[in-house]
Amino acid sequence: MNPERVFQVLVGPHVSEKAAIVADAANQYVFKVAVDATKPEIKKAVEQLFKVKVENVTTMKVKGKMKRNRYGFSTKPTWKKAYVSVQPGQDIDFTTAD
Question: Is domain 3-86 in CATH 3.30.70.330, yes or no?
Answer without folding.
Answer: yes
